[in-house]
Amino acid sequence: MPINLKKTVAATSTLAALTGLGLFAAQAQAPQRNVWSGVYTAAQAARGADAYAMHCAACHGSSLEGIDVAPALTGATFSSNWNNTSAADLHERIKLTMPIQAPNSLGGRMVADIEAYIFQANGMPAGDLDLPPNPALMRNVVITSQKPADDEGDCTC
Ligand code: HEC
Predict the structure, then answer these.
(1) Which of 37, 88, 96, 137 is the most exposed place for a label (fewest CB within 10 A)?
(2) What gap in Å lies between CA 59 and CA 98, rounded to an integer?
(3) Residue 69: CB within 6 Å of ligand 1?
(4) Is 114 helix (H, G, I), strand (E, B) or coil?
(5) How many of the other CB atoms lie within 10 Å of CB of 130?
């Protein structure tokens, strides 16, 4: 059967337009933020440290340095594995696959607390609001390995 090129092109461009609109709407609702702009609180990271010690440290190390096949959750390993992902990606990875012997056993709030602790351990600063317990609310929070040069309020120019 010959491919109807005209139809395919029309369908593709409609899809592209819809996707474009979808992206635009999502961005309009939630402006993009970066983990270097203060996306968790110090109190949350402190709660996360306790939860990490209980549920994660046995495999990932008491300083998140990694042990054997359990990767480090700080430093170069974290930077290269998580650069240009989002706080939602990391949340889902932890929630759905960790602790490896009991995936999906921790609540969203505890996972967010642990995530805050991981951000703190990677040098990302605390801010005024907790990281939300639901990944849908942090798809706009980008993880980058380096603090962006043009971060709001940080311009030394
Ligand atoms: C019983 C050991 C064990 C426990 C407990 C455990 N992990 Fe893991 N974790 C692993 C192993 C092994 C891997 C690598 C294999 C994989 O990705 O499934 C891993 C991978 C990961 C990754 C992906 C790292 C990367 O850069 O790819 C993250 C994030 C993570 N764990 C976070 C956690 C957190 C947070 C906890 C506590 C809630 C936890 N893990 C508990 C063993 C464990």
Answers:
(1) 96
(2) 11
(3) yes
(4) helix
(5) 17
Sequence-distant contacts of 77-84: CB under 8 A, at least 24 apart: 78/118, 78/122, 78/145, 79/122, 79/145, 80/145, 82/143, 82/145, 83/143, 83/144, 83/145, 84/142, 84/143, 84/144
86 forms beta bridges with 142
The pTM for the full model equals 0.83
Per-residue pLDDT tens over the stretch 25-73: 554 567 899 999 999 999 999 999 999 999 999 999 999 999 999 999 9
Structure-block tokens of residue 154: 């940080």
Tokens of 106: 């921790």
Establish whether residue 3 lines the binding site of ligand 1, counting it when its CB lies within 6 angstroms of any ligand atom.
no
Residue 67 beta carbon below 6 angstroms from any ligand 1 atom: no
Residue 58 beta carbon below 6 angstroms from any ligand 1 atom: yes
141 DSSP β-pair partners: 33
* CB neighbours of residue 144 within 10 Å: 15
